[in-house]
Amino acid sequence: MALSNHNCDVLIAGGGPAGLATAIALRQQGAGVLVADSQRPPIDKPCGEGLMPDGLRALAQLGVPLDRGHGAEFAGICFVSGQSRVSADFPSGPGLGVRRTTLHQLLLDRASQLGVRFSWNTPLVVKPGLNEKPSLAAEPIAFRWLIGADGCSSRVRAWTGLEAVRQNLASRGSRRFGFRAHYRLASHSQPWPTHVEVHWGRLGQAYITPIGPDEICVSAMTRHPATRLTEILSAIPFLRDKLAAATPTTHERGALTLTRRLHRVTGGNIALIGDASGSVDAITGEGLALAFRQALLLADSLAAGSLALYQARHARILALPQRMAALLLLLDRHPRLRSGTLRVFAAHPALFRSLLAVHVGAGFGRGEPFIPGFSQPAKNSEVDLC
């Protein structure tokens, strides 16, 4: 939409799920928010499209409750490697498989309902040197806070000099290549099990997420840059045979997946969120949930008038998923260790259930209690846009 001016409390660079979740959380605290993105909605991105229970809880706090009408529920996770198979249900209710475009539209609808302003198809321009102020559509912008929600290759992160990465166990050797496509199952085939299935093969992993009564999302990850989705699936006999009669409903899309942790995610009046602020390998399935939790924490921090709370607690949100990513990547690199580990899990299913319960964070909090800082928008009244 055409903007009469570019003044706002908070400018968010990036209108993907992380940016929209941040806009919603801030608007719930009463901030005037402007979101700028070079694309137009709904914005798609290759991902596994499975929302874990902790991600659903965070979405509910943002006023975006999802149910089976938006996709397909899954009860838990199943790991498969060769003849070894182990599964467990989530202890706090099911997850939900949802098309990325559907999720983006729901977040956009909620943000619009709250009075967030948007500038689509308009990239934020940042030039080297902090003395050069950002601009939008060749016009300067006045803001109190700038949030970089512009992904793994964040220009805001580069502009602010927050590129320094912590080298730790979780971040070693985690640069991989991910692919995604959708398939409609044949009418005569058996329904896909009510679990997200993670299959290990010679060329990488593939994981299958139900997203509808007869549709699945098929994602795969590999360390080999020249390898593609069909090759990974062909190297896993079970999936090759299972998908033989299925019909592709979308084209293959690819993206880079990695684990990265920054020294700092804030500087002055600027903060990073989502993949711009650090990331975990996609095999954890926690990328979206992390962004939603970060959005709630950031809103509380800015409501207190400072980014200190966000900087102090951001690392806690990433810590457990990055440790889990390190474990899963270790299993990926060592097939014999993986087979032995899955045999142990199969012999002791309670151990796998406990690990899954820890992974999905049964009972996370959003941080410190809310400290008023922004005036709340009045209910059933005109929203005051800055």
Provide an overview of this structure.
With 386 residues, this protein is an alpha+beta fold. The chain has a domain at 7-57 and 97-169 and 259-331: 3-Layer(bba) Sandwich (FAD/NAD(P)-binding domain), CATH 3.50.50. The protein has ten helices and 22 strands. Strands 5, 6, 13, 14, 15, 16, 17 and 18 form an eight-stranded mixed β-sheet that branches. Strand 20 (266-267) and strand 21 form a beta hairpin. The chain is globular.
Tell me the layout of helices and strands.
Blueprint: E1 7-13, H1 17-28, E2 33-36, E3 50-51, H2 53-61, E4 72-74, E5 76-81, E6 84-89, E7 95-97, H3 100-114, E8 117-119, E9 124-125, E10 135-136, E11 139-140, E12 142-148, H4 155-160, E13 176-184, E14 195-200, E15 205-210, E16 215-222, H5 229-234, H6 237-242, E17 247-248, E18 253-257, E19 260-261, E20 266-267, E21 270-272, E22 278-279, H7 287-303, H8 308-333, H9 335-347, H10 349-359
Parallel strand pairs: 1-2, 1-12, 2-8, 5-14, 12-21
Antiparallel strand pairs: 3-7, 4-7, 5-6, 9-10, 10-11, 13-16, 13-17, 13-18, 14-15, 15-16, 19-22, 20-21
Q: What fraction of the residues are assigned to beta strands by DSSP?
A: 15-25%
Estimate the mean pLDDT confidence.
86
Q: What would CATH call the architecture of the domain at 7-57 and 97-169 and 259-331?
A: 3-Layer(bba) Sandwich
Number of strands: 22
The parts where pLDDT drops under 50 for at least 5 residues are 168-173, 363-386
Find the CATH topology of the domain at 7-57 and 97-169 and 259-331. FAD/NAD(P)-binding domain
Count the helices. How many? 10
Rg from C-alpha positions?
21 Å
Q: Percent range for helical residues?
A: 25-40%
State the separation between the terminal residues, measured CA to CA: 15 Å
Shape: globular
- Largest sheet, described in full? 8 strands, mixed
Structural class given helices, strands, pairing? alpha+beta
CATH superfamily grouping of the domain at 7-57 and 97-169 and 259-331: FAD/NAD(P)-binding domain
CATH class of the domain at 7-57 and 97-169 and 259-331: Alpha Beta
